[in-house]
Specification:
By secondary structure, this protein is an alpha+beta fold. The chain has helices spanning 15-23, 49-56, 80-87; strands at residues 2-10, 28-33, 40-46, 66-73. Strands 2-3-1-4 form a four-stranded antiparallel beta sheet. A hairpin with a 6-residue loop joins strand 2 and strand 3 (40-46). The longest helix is centred in the first third of the chain and has 9 residues, at 15-23. The radius of gyration is 14 Å and the shape is globular.
Amino acid sequence: MINAIVFVTADVSSIPELAEEIAGIEGVSEVYSVTGAIDLIAMVRVRDVDQVAAVVADRINKLTGVKETETHIAFRTFSRHDLDAAFSL
């Protein structure tokens, strides 16, 4: 499983609609509207790097209102949920 964090800079007038469109793309698990230099963060969870490219380059980048994306691929994932599951055995 590949986890990628995609920073999306968007046309301000289309942020809510764009967030919903991105959330509807297969492989996108969550979309967060955030403050700061970027407008949205999309969490992409797919089987391989080629699928990351398909989701980001072929789908997200082509949506009307997307100005720019920056993708970060996670090497390891650490979360409270994972730790709780490991110790509940």
